Amino acid sequence: MAIEMKFIDDAVIKMNISKFLSKELTKAGFSRVEIQKTPVLTRITVYVLNPGRVIGRMGKSINELTESIRRNFNVNNPQISVIEVQNKMLEPLLVAKDITFKLERSINPRKITQFTLKSIMENGALGAEIIIRGKLAAKGA
């Protein structure tokens, strides 16, 4: 029973770290995070659009981020590495944020989906599905 609880606790900690990083790194264009736990350290790889915002001047921001992860989540020796996203249109979270930004500016949803799908396909994807739900503002009303 103790082994199962250890796996569950590790998964919960990884999920909480992922949520924390997505909130902290929204301005840097957070895409995803990979967390590998070893006996000596915890390696956290963050994929962002703008790595300069994560690292900060003289590495100040990344040191603060490492320290807050160490304090808040009781992670022994977290080691954060930042990787730049090479192609923005192949990262689903970044594409979704771009679509929401355009919807907030009240651009026609059909135009948004067609343009986004076209640019996703031009960047090398074999296919994509865009679903927009909810009440959308009508221009003619």
Please specify the SSE layout and strand pairing:
Elements: H1 2-24, E1 30-37, E2 42-48, H2 51-55, H3 60-73, E3 78-84, H4 92-104, H5 109-122
Parallel strand pairs: 2-3
Antiparallel strand pairs: 1-2
Task: Explain what you see.
- By secondary structure, this protein is an alpha+beta fold.
- The chain folds into 2 domains: 85 residues, K homology (KH) domain (GMP Synthetase, Chain A, domain 3, 2-Layer Sandwich); 55 residues, no CATH class.
- 49% of the residues lie in helices and 16% in strands.
- It contains 5 helices and 3 strands; from the N terminus they run H-E-E-H-H-E-H-H.
- It has a 3-stranded mixed β-sheet with strand order 1-2-3.
- The radius of gyration is 19 Å and the shape is elongated.
Portion in strands: 15-25%
Spatial sequence of strands, sheet with the most strands: 1-2-3
SS-based structural class?
alpha+beta
CATH topology of the largest domain: GMP Synthetase, Chain A, domain 3
What does the main sheet amount to?
3 strands, mixed
Uncertain regions: pLDDT < 50 for 5+ in a row? none
CATH first level of the largest domain: Alpha Beta
| Fraction of residues in H or I helices | 40-55%
How far apart are the termini? 60 Å
CATH architectural category of the largest domain = 2-Layer Sandwich
Q: Could you tell me the number of beta strands?
A: 3
Q: Return the domain count.
A: 2
Q: How are helices and strands ordered from N to C? A: HEEHHEHH
Name the overall outline: elongated
Helical run tally? 5
CATH superfamily of the largest domain: K homology (KH) domain
Mean of residue pLDDT? 90
